[in-house]
Amino acid sequence: MEQKKAHKESFYIEGMLKDDPFIGREIYDKFYPKIERLVTLNSGGKTDARDVFQDALVVIYKKALKPDFILTCPFYNFLYPICKYIWLKKLTKKSRSEVTIQDDAGFIDEANIETVIHETERHRLYREKFAQLGEKCQAIINLVFEKKKMREIAELLGYNNEKTAKQQHYKCKQKLIKLVREDVRFSEMI
After folding, report:
1. Domain end point (choices 106, 124, 142)
2. What Rg value do the Cα atoms of the chain yield, rounded?
3. What does 64-86 look like in DSSP terms, one character per residue?
4. What three-state secondary structure class fits 31?
């Protein structure tokens, strides 16, 4: 099995583990504004953003304590999906008032964080390949996601009929699947 290679930004993890105040300040100065923006653009305030950021750092710290942990990507690429996941869970909790995926200490279960990170990587790959499709393919796939009827899609995109729109959607979907599967990252995600 191939050994994972530590990313050059592993110094953030090392600094956190050593409780280095300079690294702590750099993490906060460099990454907090982006997380604050994520939270405030999605129904939260600055206090919510601070809480999400701190919770994410605790999750990362706990994960970094494990002897086999190696940061293999840029620090922000590791931090962001954790923050996004924590914020989504807080929003879900507010709207449904049900407790989900928390451990005894009140922090997000790290096994689920790995799932979220994996899903985020898959979604990123999908978005990249989706952007490589032509405008018509992007439009038809978006309209299907919006739950538009094929008859309406045919009218909107200028196809002769609903059958032609279905055929075109199938071709575009197959092209997207092919682009995703041909990418080296896809085989790593399986």
Report:
1. 124
2. 21
3. HTSTT----S-HHHHHHHHHHHH
4. helix
Q: Specify whether 42 is located in the same domain as 90.
A: yes
Q: For 4-54, what is each residue's pLDDT tens digit?
A: 788 899 999 999 999 999 999 999 999 999 999 988 888 889 999 999 999
Distance from C-alpha of 190 to C-alpha of 176, rounded to nearest angstrom: 17
- Residue 95: phi and psi, rounded to 5, are -80, -30
pLDDT for the residue numbered 120: 64
Domain extent at residue 108? 1-124
**Same domain for 153 and 100:** no
The two structure tokens encoding residue 144:
């299907």
- Give which of 31, 36, 63 is closest to 47, Cα–Cα: 36
Asked whether residue 16 is assigned to any structural domain, the reply reads yes
> For residue 20, is it within any domain?
yes
Tens digit of each residue's pLDDT (9 = 90 or more) over 117-152: 666 677 777 888 888 999 999 999 888 888 889 999
With beta carbons less than 8 A apart as the criterion, state whether 117 and 82 touch: yes
At 98, is the pLDDT very low, low, confident or very high (cuts 50, 70, 90)?
very low
Between the CA of residue 108 and those of 31, 90, 112, 153, 155, what are the distances in Å? 20, 11, 8, 41, 46
Burial of 184 (0-12, 13-18, 19+ CB in 10 A): exposed
